[in-house]
């Protein structure tokens, strides 16, 4: 990646792709592609050097292929949409599917986002990227949306490094639209080539049960009670599972923690339990490059195939002029 290194917000390039680069005064660095508003790299200072905390795409070809949807912004749905089909407002709709017949993670992972704003606020550096969805732009989704994605680099009160993301969608059309948001970050801890020595803790009371197509079962059959918090050692564990009925901490946020028992370091994904009702974990076993080098911890507004679920039909509706947000932070604690 070709970039500048002085503190501030600059333009950069990544294998020919345009990027925005945030260089925090404490040394942290964030690289965001205009394609999909996708984070390519988040580095933070540790023992005098920068360490990588997200497992992003390594080339423009990978970014175009979208294998694993590394660090992708998921709009207007997250995870799977059964056969690319859904009904809304009394009409049947069919969106494009991939070579496996799946409609994964929305419409904007390959969209070009433009920069709307950069800001320096207190100790934070932030960049805001925008895109839109027009009724004829994506077959099967005849609705109008404005989409804004903001990323902020900051430092916590105890010196921890923080990356904040805020996805805001506004219905700019004259009819209601179905909207479910998500984010797909892949977390990696320094000093660990794989996730096999790590553990993850999820403050959830239910696990989502799925069929052979990895789609949730109908109605209440999709939920299986679990003891909270769920603590999972990742050695010899393969996950592509969602959890819900999330339990907030004393600060009112849901904190899913990826931790190294050996070093004591951790990455915590924080999400609002009212905006993001689900957290999905994926161990990346099927990734084309570096399987199991990182853990996807995905805050999502709803479970997979939400557009086809009667139990969230009303909650999905975004009225004309209304907004929906997904706000999440990742916190890196060195020990």
Task: Explain how this protein is built.
Helix content is 3%, strand content 45%. The protein has 335 residues and is mostly beta strands. The chain is built from two helices and 28 strands.
List keywords for this structure.
nine-stranded antiparallel β-sheet; 335 residues; 28 strands; six-stranded antiparallel β-sheet; 2 helices
Strand order of the largest sheet: 11-12-13-14-28-24-23-18-21
* Rough outline: globular
* Radius of gyration using CA atoms only: 19 Å
Q: In total, how many beta strands?
A: 28
Measured as a percent range, the helix fraction is under 10%
Task: Tell me the series of helices and strands, N- to C-terminal.
Answer: EEEEEHEEEEEEEEEEEEEEEEEEEEEHEE
Class by alpha and beta content: mainly beta
What fraction strand?
Answer: over 45%
Sequence stretches where pLDDT stays below 50 over 5 or more residues: none
Cα end-to-end separation: 30 Å
Mean of the pLDDT scores? 94
Q: If helices are DSSP runs of H or I spanning 4 or more residues, what is the number of helices?
A: 2
Largest sheet: 9 strands, antiparallel
């Amino acid at each position: 990646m070709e970039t500048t290194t002085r503190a501030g917000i600059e333009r950069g390039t990544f294998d020919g792709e345009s990027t925005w680069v945030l260089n925090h005064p404490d040394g942290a660095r964030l690289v965001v592609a205009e394609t999909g508003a996708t984070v390519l790299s988040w580095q933070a200072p540790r023992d005098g050097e920068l360490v990588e905390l997200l497992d992003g795409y390594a080339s423009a070809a990978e970014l175009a292929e979208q294998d694993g949807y590394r660090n992708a912004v998921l709009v207007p749905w997250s995870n799977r949409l059964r056969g690319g089909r859904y009904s809304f407002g009394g009409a049947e709709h069919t969106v494009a599917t991939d070579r496996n017949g799946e409609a994964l993670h929305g419409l904007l992972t390959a969209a070009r986002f433009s920069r709307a704003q950069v800001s320096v606020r207190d100790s934070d550096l932030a960049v805001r990227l925008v895109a839109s969805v027009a009724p004829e732009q994506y077959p099967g989704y005849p609705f109008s949306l404005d989409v804004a994605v903001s990323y902020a680099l900051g430092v916590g009160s105890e010196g921890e490094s923080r990356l904040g993301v805020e996805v805001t969608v506004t219905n700019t059309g004259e009819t209601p639209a179905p909207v479910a948001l998500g984010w797909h970050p892949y977390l990696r801890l320094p000093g660990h080539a794989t996730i096999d020595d790590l553990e993850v803790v999820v403050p959830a009371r239910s696990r989502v049960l799925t069929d052979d197509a990895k789609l949730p079962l109908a109605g209440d059959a999709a939920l299986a009670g679990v003891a909270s918090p769920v603590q999972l050692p990742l050695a010899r564990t393969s996950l592509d599972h969602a959890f819900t009925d999330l339990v907030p901490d004393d600060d009112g946020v849901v904190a899913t923690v990826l931790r190294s028992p050996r070093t004591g370091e951790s990455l915590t994904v924080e999400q609002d339990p009212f905006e993001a009702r689900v957290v999905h974990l994926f161990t990346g076993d099927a990734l084309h490059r570096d399987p199991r080098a990182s853990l996807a911890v995905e805050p999502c507004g709803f479970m997979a195939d939400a557009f086809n679920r009667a139990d969230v039909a009303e909650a999905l509706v975004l009225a004309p002029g209304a907004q929906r947000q997904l706000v999440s932070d990742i916190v890196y604690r060195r020990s």
